[in-house]
Amino acid sequence: MKKIALIVFACLSVFAANAQKGSLFIIGGGERSDALMQQMLDVAALKAKDYIIVLPMSSEVPDKGFEFLATQMKKLKEGVVIKNFNFSKHDVNDKKWIDSLVGAKLIYILGGDQNRFMKVVLGTPIYTAIHKAYANGATIAGTSAGAAVMSKYMITGQHLIDTAAKDGFDKLWDKNIEFAQGLGLLQNTIIDQHFIKRNRYARLISSLAAHPELVCVGIDESTALIVHGTQAKVAGESQVIRIANPKNLQRTTKGLIKFNQAEFGIFTAGDSIEIKP
Q1: Is residue 250 situated within a structural domain?
Q2: b (16+ CB within 10 A) / e for 2-25
Q3: Which one is catalytic: 194, 207, 222, 238?
Q4: Would you say residue 165 lies in a domain?
Q5: What is the pLDDT of residues 17-42, one digit of tens each?
Q6: How many domains does the structure of the chain reveal?
Q7: Residue 144 catalytic?
């Protein structure tokens, strides 16, 4: 009887931990319509004393990026409190700022360069504060680079073999794609952004070959993936691509990747997709 009680308690503890977690609102970049951003505010469910904190460290123009977002948020929600925490120019150990970050109901990460963002955040109290806010029920949102950082295995945008290539991949080489440590809010799903607009299929396939045990998701511009626990739903104007479970994955002697088949799906607004949190 005691053993059963312990099992029940453990299950309830797991359920409570999962129920306590917040949501992710992951935008693929590009134009962000009022309708899409209103959905983000609806997911965050801001109450009277709640506030938004913007983390602009990815951006080359952090102040302008913040001003644009703040204008849109204030248009959509009267009286909303939105703060700009640019830790690139501020002490990452400032307790007042860190405590405010933990208490935010919505944390929004601007686009730009995901490597620039993680250089500021990784190994600092900012990283821990974001995770605490998420565990406490906050919505963590981001666009473009702010989408890429959601993953544990963050796509850096750099190539390891065909280093002369820019945005695309000339061939599906083994060990060509570079990853760095992201925020890890998604431990088992890799996110790519600007997906259809910038034709990043080869990059996502390369990601799947590098980590075949994970789910790889490409989010197009003006489109978002809303994640809560193991549930993910598409919002916005374009599509989300999901690939997973490659069969008979191999590498040729020349270093090319190949596999027989994989799960492949294209999803639009309102569709639910299976991910691994």
Answers
A1: no
A2: eeeeeeeeeeeeeeeeeeebbbbb
A3: 194
A4: no
A5: 444 489 999 999 999 999 999 999 99
A6: 1
A7: yes
Would you say 218 and 266 are in contact if contact means Cβ atoms under 8 Å apart? no
What pLDDT does 230 receive?
Answer: 84
- The model's pLDDT over 244-257, given as tens digits with 9 standing for 90+, comes to 999 999 999 999 99
Q: What's the domain range around 123?
A: 22-157+178-196+217-237+266-274
31 as an active site residue: the answer is no
Choose, from 59, 159, 206, 221, the residue flagged as catalytic.
221
What are 86-89's contacts with CB under 8 Å, separation 24+?
Answer: 86/55, 86/56, 86/57, 86/62, 87/55, 87/57, 87/120, 87/121, 87/124, 87/126, 88/56, 88/57, 88/62, 88/120
90 noted as active-site residue: no
What would the two tokens of residue 244 be? 């997973």
DSSP 183-201: --SBSSEEEE-STTTTT-H
Q: Rounded CA gap, 92 and 125, in Å? A: 7
CATH code for the domain of 222: 3.40.50.880
Measured between alpha carbons, how far is 55 from 146 in angstroms, rounded to an integer? 9
In a domain, residue 187? The reply is yes
182 within domain boundaries: yes
